[in-house]
Design a protein that fits this description.
Elements (H helix, E strand, L loop, with lengths): L8 H13 L1 H8 L7 H11 L3 E5 L7 H14 L2 E6 L2 H15 L4 E4 L4 E2 L5 E5 H10 L7 E7 L10 H10 L5 E6 L5 H12 L2 E5 L7 E7 L2 E4 L11 H14 L25 H10 L5 E4 L3 H13 L7 H14 L13 H9 L2 E4 L5 H12 L5 E4 L13 E4 L3 E3 L4 E3 L2 H8 L11 E6 L6 H9 L13 H11 L1 H9 L2 H30 L4 H38 L5 E5 L6 E7 L11 E4 L4 E3 L13 E2 L11 H12 L19 H12 L8 H28 L2 H15 L12 H6 L7 H9 L8 H9 L20 H21 L13 H8 L4 H10 L6 H22 L4 H13 L2 H4 L4
Parallel strand pairs: 1-7, 1-8, 2-5, 2-6, 3-5, 6-7, 9-17, 11-13, 11-14, 12-13, 14-17
Antiparallel strand pairs: 3-4, 9-10, 15-16, 18-19, 18-22, 19-20, 20-21
Length: 914
Amino acid sequence: MAPRPVSSPAEAYQASKRRGRHPQLTRFAAEVSFEFDDFQVRGCQALEDGHGVLVCAPTGAGKTVVGEFAVHLALAEGRKCFYTTPIKALSNQKYNDLVDRYGTAAVGLLTGDTAINGSAQIVVMTTEVLRNMLYAGSPALNELSYVVMDEIHYLADRFRGAVWEEVILHLPEHVRLVGLSATVSNAEEFGEWLVTVRGDTTVVVEEHRPVPLWQHMMVGNRLLDLFADDGEKRMNPSLLRRVEEVGRMHAPAALRGPRNRGRQQFRGPRFRPPSRVDVVNRLDAAGLLPAIVFIFSRAGCDAAVGQVTRAGLQLNTPDEMAEVRRVVADRTGDLPDGDLGVLGYWEWRDALENGVAAHHAGLLPAFKETVEELFVRGLVKVVFATETLALGINMPARTVVLERLVKYNGEAHVDLTPGEYTQLTGRAGRRGIDVEGHGVVVWQPGIDPKQVAGLASTRTYPLRSSFRPGYNMAINLVSQLGHEQARELLEQSFAQFQADRSVVGLARRIERNREGLRGYTEAITADFQEMLEYVELRKKISDREKALAKQNTAARRASTAESLEKLRKGDVIAVPAGRRAGLAVVVDPGLDPIREPRPVVVTEDRWSGPLSLADFPGPVEPLGHIRLPKHVELRSPKTRRDIASSLRSAGISLPSRQKRRSGANEDGELAALRRALRAHPCHGLAEREANLRWIERYQRLAAETEQLERRVAATTHSLARAFDRICALLRERGYLGEGEDRVTEHGVRLARLYSESDLLAAECIRHGVWSGLDHAELAAVVSTLVFEARRDSAGEPRLPSGAVPRAWQDTARLWQELSEDERRHRLDRTREPDAGFAWPVYRWARGESLEKVLTSAEANGQELSAGDFVRWSRQVIDLLDQIRTVLGKADPVGDTASRAVKALRRGVVAAGAQ
C-alpha cells in the first residue's frame, strides 16, 4: 500500500475507465489514504465482478484489504457479511477495527464466550461459531452474501482444520467466499478445489513482501548479515569466518584434534550466548526496536521479562509510561482488586511501563490483549513471546529474534520447518512505518549458518488438508442430507481432492504396467494359459521340496539331539566334518535340563572342547569305548596327550561316509507333481526356457501392479469409508436408526454437542452418570472431557470427595467401552478424560478466591497459571452451556449445568467476556 503516485494523462484515462467498471471499488479506495497494490486491486475487482476470491500473500502484505472490501460490498448491497478468524484474539482485534470504521450498530462479535450485536449486518466470529450456525440452520444466515475466512490456511491444523472445510462445503451456493491465506506453494491446487465446490473462484497470489526482510545472526555481541550484499543468496563470508573462529575458541578440548593427546590441553572459556539484556541493548543501539523475541517456552518468556526488568532497562519515555498506565487501567479495570496480587499484576504493569512484556497462552486474556494494544501503539518495545503470537494476531515489529531453532511440539523437541521460520520472521517490518524488517537468529554452538540460510531461502510450504469426519459431523450430515448425499459431500472435501490427485501418478504407473503386461503376453510363443499352468506346477514342486527339506531338517535335528543325550563318558564318536573332523572321545556328556546337549570331547590331535548339534548332520552312534580316569583335568596338556594317544591306539577306525537320504523320493505328493510336470504339453517345448523367462517377468510386474492398485483403492473414497465406519458405530450405539437416514433422539442430542469428546459427552448424558451431582461436582466431572494436561506437568490429579469419584469412574468406564468399539471399527480414539482440572474448577464453582484455587493447585503439584485457569474454565463453561441447551432447564442435569455456568462465570473468568 504505497502513497498515491502522480500519473500521466494516459494513465489517468485508463484509471478512469477502470473506476467506471468497478464503482464500489472506487468508492472504497476513496476512503483510504494509500494506493492499493496490484494484487489488492485484482482481488477486489474479482469480488465486485461476482467471483469468489482466494488471496495468498505474505504476512503484512495487506491481504485483509480484500476482506474489508467484502464488508464494504455487503453494506452497500444491504446484505450481510460474516468475517471469520481462527482465534478469539484476532476476532476481537478485527471487531475493534470494523467498529472504528463503521460504528457499533453495524458490527457484531460472536466467539465462544462473547456475544455482541449478533444480528448486525457485519458479524466477526470464530470459524467454529459459523460451523455451528450452519449445522443448526440459524436464522442469522438469512441475507448472508459474503463470508471472509481470514487465515484460511488454518485448515491444515490437525486439531481444528476440519472446521474450515465444513464451513466451505456447507455454505449456501449464493454466498461468495473470500479466503485470505499466508503464502502457500500449492495455491493453484487449493484454488482449483474451491472452484469445484464453490464455483467461480479467482486465485490471487502475491509473493513480494512490501517491506524487505534482512536476515542476520547475532554471534556474541556482533550482529552480522546472513547473506552477502551482492544480490545473490550467497552466505556472508564474514559470518562464516566469525562462527568458525568463535566455535574453535570455545570448542571442548577433545574436539580440537588428536595432537598432544594424553598431555595437558588448553581449554578455552565455555561459550555463553549473549544475555537477553545484551540482545535488547544491541537491538536498541542499532535502532532495531520494537522487537519480538521468540522463546519457545512460557517460563522462558516470563524469566526474560524479569531479567530485563531487574537490569533496570527503561525503553519508554516518562510520557509513554504515563500513557501505558492509563491504557492498563482502562483495560484491566474490571479485574477484582483482591485477585491482583496473585495475578502478578503489579510486576506486570511495572514491566509494561518500562516497555517490556511477555505474550503466551498462559497469560490472562486481559493481560494479553493489553500487551497487544500497547505493542501495536509502540508503547511496548520488546515482547518475549511463544510461537502462538505468530498465528494471525496483527502485531508487526521492526525486528524478530529467534533464540533457538528448536521447539517442543507437545511430544518432542523438533527443528523449525521453513514454513514456521517464515511465519515467525514474517512479523518483521511494519508497512508504512519501516523501510525494512529484520530477522535475527542468536548463534549458539551447534547452529550452522547454512541451516539458517536454508530455512530463510526455502519457498515450498504446501497446504495439506487435515479434514476427517467425526461423530458430530456425521450425525449432522446424515440429519441434513441423508447418508448417501453425506458421502458425496465428503468426497468433495479438499482432503479427498488431494488424495485423489496423489493417485494420479500411481494410476499412470498402473497403466504403463498394464501395457508392459500386454507386451510380455505377446512375446510368449506358447499358449499363455498353459505356460502359467506349467509355471504353477514348477512352483508347487519347489514349495513341496522346501517343505520336505524343512521337515527332514527338523526331524534330523531332533534325532541328533536325542542321540547326543545318550552318549556317555568314554564313548568314541566320529565328527564327520569341519575343523574337528575325525575321531573323538567324550569326556563329559554335557547334559543340561534346559539347553541342548553339548558334549565335551578330546580329538586325535589333542583338541579339547564342547561340540554342538551344528557339528553333526545326523544322529551320532558310538563307535566304541575307552576307559578314562574318574577325574579328567582337561587344562593339563599331558592329560589331553594321554587321552589322544589312547584314542589312536584303541583300534577304532572312521566309518565310510554314507549319502544322506532326503526322503523326497518317498513322498507321494511330490512324485505325483513331478509326473504331472513331465506330462504337461509345455514340458517338451523347444523354447520352454525362453518362455519361462517372459512368464517370470510377467508375474513380477503383475505383483507390482496389484500392489499399486491396492494403494489406489485405499486412497480413493477413503473419507467416505471412514464415514461409513463412524455411522456403523453410531448405529450400534443407538444414535442412528436402522434406516440409514434416521437420527434417533440420542443422535439429535449429539448433533448439538460440539466438543472434542462429543460422543463421550453424549454417552454420559444418555447413561445418566452425571445425575445427582451438584453444580460444583458437575463442573469438576465435565472438566475431564475438555482439560488436557501439559506434557511437562507432574503430580497425580486430586478429586473432590463425595459424588465426584463415582461419576469420574463411570465416565472413565464409558470412555474405555467407547475406545474398544473405536478400535474394533478402526476409528481414531476419543481422547482419554483427564481429571487434572477437576479440583481447581470445583473450588472455583464453590465460590473460593482465585488465590486459594491456584495455591491449592500448586500444592497438588499442578502447574496452573492464571491465564490457563481462565482458558480452561471458559472451555468448561462452553461445554456446560451446550449440555444446558441440549437438555433444557427442565431436566435436572440441564438445570445443574445452568447453575454451574453462573457459578463459574465470575471474577477473572468473566472479565472481558460479554
